[in-house]
Amino acid sequence: QCKGIVVYCKNIEGFAFNELFASHLSGSFLLTKPDDFFDEKESEIIFLKLQGQMSKSIARRLVSSPLDVENMLQELYYKAGVKHFDDFSEFCNKRNYHRYLPRRFIES
């Protein structure tokens, strides 16, 4: 017998749910990294990039410079063994990083 439900909600900034429904995602996020291939900082950049944000916007969110973000993206591509965003996106999808929601975006 259920006596009640407790729910905690937080607005996820920089994420549009209409994009989620328009895509082929399952509608759920992972709150733990799928593996240790990328570290947490890399995962934050990946999350924002896969949401369609540009380097300037990512830099603003992560309090960094756009050049630093661009350099990090190039390092991520190299680490994944790809040269283009489409290939990187596919790589991340196969490893479930497209579903990982980094802690920074859910903690206050």
SS strand fraction: under 5%
CATH architecture title: Orthogonal Bundle
- Termini separation: 33 Å
CATH topology: Arc Repressor Mutant, subunit A
- The best one-word shape is globular
Mean pLDDT: 84
How many domains, as an integer? 1
Query: Could you tell me the radius of gyration in angstroms?
Result: 15 Å
Low-confidence stretches: none
Structural class: mainly alpha
Number of helices: 5
Main sheet properties: none
Assigned CATH superfamily:
Winged helix-like DNA-binding domain superfamily/Winged helix DNA-binding domain
In N-to-C order, the SSE pattern is HHHHH
CATH class: Mainly Alpha
Structure description:
The chain has 108 residues and is an all-alpha fold. It is globular, with a radius of gyration of 15 Å. The protein has helices spanning 17-22, 40-50, 55-61, 66-80, 85-94.
Give a short overview.
The protein is mostly helical and 108 residues long. It contains five helices and no strands.
Please supply descriptive tags for the structure shown above.
45% helix; Arc Repressor Mutant, subunit A; mainly alpha; 5 helices; 108 residues
